[in-house]
Amino acid sequence: MNYDDMLDRGIEQAPEIQPDSDRLDVPDPVVRQEGNVTVFENFRSVCQELSRDPDHLLKFLQDELGTSAHIDESDRARLTGDFGTRRIRDAIDAYTDQYVLCGECGLPDTNVRREQGAEILQCTACGARSPT
Ligand SMILES: [Zn+2]
Q: Cα dist. 124→15, 27, 46, 64, 102 in Å?
């Protein structure tokens, strides 16, 4: 066996590197109190990781936390009231379960679409469609 063959074998035996694009890596919410408002600093990057419309997530947060909120000029979410990191994180997890992860295969490769007034979660990985 010559050196090149050994190199080839080395490559063959190397463990396959699994792409982790299937896995969500949602950043922990960074929140800060400003008077009676909770400023959700990295709201934008959470939306980007989830591939969801910021307005859609914001509306969910409002319902989930029972408060009013808006997105400011720096793409931060400003929620009326005092909410800690954990509370926000739980709300995002609930959103992820409901609007991002496929109920059939569990992958986040999904789209939310509106059909005849109903929201449908469509999975591009396995093709499953389910109402949200
Ligand atoms: Zn699926």
A: 28, 23, 21, 27, 9
